[in-house]
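Project standup — Tuesday

K.O.: blocked on the structure for the chain from last sprint. Re-posting the sequence here as requested.
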Amino acid sequence: MSAIPKPGQGTLSQVLQRKKVLLGVYYLFLATLAFGFLFPLIWMIATSLKTGSEALSSPTSVIPADPTAENYWAALEVLPTYFWNSVKLAFLNVAGLLVVASLAGFAFARLRFPGRDVIFVVVLASALVPHIVYLIPQYVVFREYGWVDTHFPLWVPRAMTPVFGTFLMRQFFLGIPKELEESARIDGANTFTIFSRIMLPLAKPALAAVALFTFVDSWNDLLGPLIFLNSQELQTVPVALALFQGEFFSNVPGLMAAATIIIVPVFVVFLLAQKYFVQGVIMSGLKG
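H.V.: unblocked you, prediction finished:
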């Protein structure tokens, strides 16, 4: 039934008309906000289709006067080696971090051992220490191991210290009913069987969220390759972008074309994991 307007509100048609106006203003505000977020992406793609002279003469225009794909061909000649290095590191980071974070999150959520909550607080507190504080000691240690100018410093520390991933997995495991675990123990299942056959299949949304965050973090890492890698053939795509910048001149269209190519894998991964990602972030915050 239609709502009956209260005295002083006007007729029903007037109330509906006001609601339509307010709804239109709301959608207009959201569209303006969305355009504000999308404009840098639109500008980047438009600039990647410009010539060098046009990019300098009209840098703010979003419609190229004479679109060209030459910048993309030039970028594709430079990026392949760097691209596969980034893919390799992203895979190692995601795989390693998912294993460690899921095991640690399960232990903090389901296992009882002395000092569990204190250790978990210490793990979370470690995230408050800025990375730059222990960068030099870390470099000295990796140099002693012979890891400098290898890919080990770019994935082993991240995979072995998954603070955010552990927190997210713990929160998700806390939300799984204990009755499932108790039923499995009655049937004779041990702890590892419960973890691998009951908990992990249910934790797909949280795993997808952790994997996506880890992939983006690894893909965008610039400081790590600059510090630990010396060989050009081991560098990653963020470093490759610097090749389009010179001391006195920057190839802005080429840089934008390379940046557009680089964000495609992140966009594809997000589309594939979007359903699980949103569900995992929401469900992981239900319990404390």
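K.O.: great, moving the ticket to review. The domain at 72-283 is CATH 1.10.3720.10 (MetI-like fold). The mean pLDDT is 85.
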